Amino acid sequence: MKKFVIIILTLLLSIFATGCSKDSKSKSSEDWSSNFVVWNKNMYNFTNETVLDVEESIGQVEKYSDNENIKTSKVFSNIYPEGTKIYKIKDISTDIAIAVGINDKYIKGSNSEKYGSN
């Protein structure tokens, strides 16, 4: 019975340890599973949430890429094409959210993390 308990505990410990480990490859896959824009070294995740009030344009998508191995310091997106305008949302800090202009509406992107941080 003691051996059985030790085997079960060892198995559970190894499963727990494997589940808690982080590597850069899994982090990259998590990043690229969402629609995002990287602006000002931050990753903003986009859904279909729209906003009504935006202020000035704060930039534009400079590079589109669906390649997870991209190395660029440009403003880029894995969903929006080059030239897509990026806006500050009225009364919301860009540390929290930004918007992109698509088809006469503004889509909100929420800041999720510094891009490339592991």
From TrEMBL:
Swiss-Prot/TrEMBL keywords: Signal
Signal listed as a keyword: yes
Extent of the signal sequence: 1-19
Highest taxon above the source species: Bacteria
Keyword Signal tagged: yes
UniProt protein name: Uncharacterized protein
